[in-house]
Input
Amino acid sequence: MASVRRNLVRNALFTSMAFVAVVAQGSAQTPPQPPTPSPQQREAETRDRQLLAQFREDLRRSVDMGARSMLKQVRQESPRAELGMANPVEVESFKLPEGDLFFRVSVPTMLPTLRYALELERATRTVTPTSLGPTGSTLSTTVQVLPAKPSPYVDIDPDAVYTREVKTQLLNTMIRRSGGIQVPASRFLIVAARDDGRPDPRLPSSFTEFNTVYFSIKGSDLTDFHEGRQTFEQTEKLVVVREE
Output
């Protein structure tokens, strides 16, 4: 009986030791840690982030340049024109899973200042003062208010000019200023420009429908331009432009 107890104790001890060994072996098998980037890799990543930030700033300035060009053309027909952006320009960038570089540009609406908007107002307004007659009856008098001066825009459409100028500036930027960003040869640089969608509640004219304009060009075409194998005019023809 004593020998049986000793065997049971010895078997239990061996089993416990085997379990501890398995647990220790499992805990030792931790997942491998990613290699620590070298100083050169960290420097390259920092440089890439800075170049992307610079390209975003270049796109933002493109919208500003388009707005200034539009205002210059409008003032050739209406020297007193006062127009400004309803909101700041915003630019975001993303690297898509396929490797494409995607930039989203929010293009603010160009609106007249309040003072200039009043000058452009053409609607005829009426004022109806009401008073009591001698017998208590209501009398209404309608006063016609003369319309404001007609719109000065005869041969120019400011919205069309603004759209055209912004598209031109964005196209120039994505070709000329993209030398620093890394677009794989087989992937695309894509710029999507859309009205920022934040109308000014004080100006009902800002509630308008708008489209998104997509510009896309292959990385190898940009490389050919930046390395001098292709002219700007040749590269410009390779940019695909579509609207949705």
Observations:
- Residues 43-113+154-243 form one domain.
- Residues 186 and 219 are 6 Å apart (CA to CA).
- The chain has six helices and eleven strands.
- Confidence is low (pLDDT under 50) at residues 12-24, 123-133, 137-149, 202-208.
